[in-house]
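note to self: dont lose this again. the chain is below, predicted strucutre after it. 454 aa total, dont forget to put it in the shared folder this time
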Amino acid sequence: MAEITKSQHSEWSSRFAFILAATGSAVGLGNIWKFPYITGENGGGAFVLVYLLCIVAIGIPIMIAETMLGRRGRQSPINTMSILADEAKANKNWHTVGWMGIITGFLILSYYSVIAGWVLSYVFKALTGSFSGGNGETISALFTDLMASPVQQIFWHTLFLGATMLIVARGVQGGLEKSVRFLIPTIFVLLVLLVGYAMTTGYYQQGLDFLFKPDFSQIDSDAVLVAMGHAFFTLGLGMGAMMVYGSYLPQHVSIAKTTLIIAGADTVIALLAGLAIFPLVFANGLEVSAGPGLIFQSLPLAFGNMTGGWLFGLLFFVLLFFAALSSSISLIEPAVAFLVENKKIKRTTACIVMGLMTWILGVIVALSFNVWSDVTFFGQGIFDLLDYITANLMLPIGGLCIAIFAGWIMKSKDSAHELAMEKPQFYALWKFLISYIAPFAVIIVLLKGVGVLG
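---
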């Protein structure tokens, strides 16, 4: 293959910078919003244990593979897959995996930005004391009013997406790296503060037991499939983000060791979120199985009726906002990188183009909750359809293709050279997992997502 030793977009200044950036890509609303509520819905500790096993067997091998492919190609996902397919003397259509990743990231950001806009609005609700002394009816009305208002939703969506594109426009070191150097440590500090607050509720031990004492009578095959799916999705795999971040990784950095740190950090943050949230849920007699409404309806009720709740409610939604922002920049970076490489335009121009396209689709998503709520496709609203297509189809297919390419198409001597693992048995273990276990597991997740299983 043509020797590409460095990305034209610059590189991360250090291994630590890459760890922060990749952790930021992985850490998002999925860790702090989705993980606690699916854990609550699926029995607590037993679900957490299955989830951790899935991270090791599925998430980490695919993350290593995607990062490795990115560094090997040194370009945007589309160009990288073209280069690597040529190197492996494989079918040239493998570049469609790159296209799928870029399109998936774009589609996800369009509705992710709307949800993050809700979070941003709740930052200001907490700041102005909107939760204080509220009851179930008044707290529920806050969310209902937000959903019913196209003006509010579009405003907050615009604000969040604008912040995202400003960061991406500043480049790899000036934008992405500088932002995550602030965001990730701040996320960790805020979580520790919230866990400390949870310790004062008198229900911390109950929350600890719920998360870490497995009761296997509370888990079934559906819960195992949910754990498998979330282990895959939480690391931000299959959408080109890790591939493009890998393309900025200096050659001397160990991909495997770094990936283990990133996966560990992502998992620790998810568990800390559970330790912060579940004691509050138990202290206020709320349902652990409240589902998606846990964050926007149940917790504001708890914060509004607890000593110090105003401050810690504000910190919680600031935390959510920072987590969303650290993920959103990775969702759009692959598309921006592609435009810079292939259309020979400036990064700022590429950001304006992609930002405008994402904003327009996000406006459509925001309207699907109110004025266009009766518009359906295949029996689903616009938001639900986008979520279904990306989460249930595009992400698993993308991850499956990455696993197959890394395990079966790419020459072993090339992947072994790129990974440069210290011991041959470590490479052999990864090769086994990426060739057999991960593809099988992702196929199960895909079949579950389309309704063939469960």
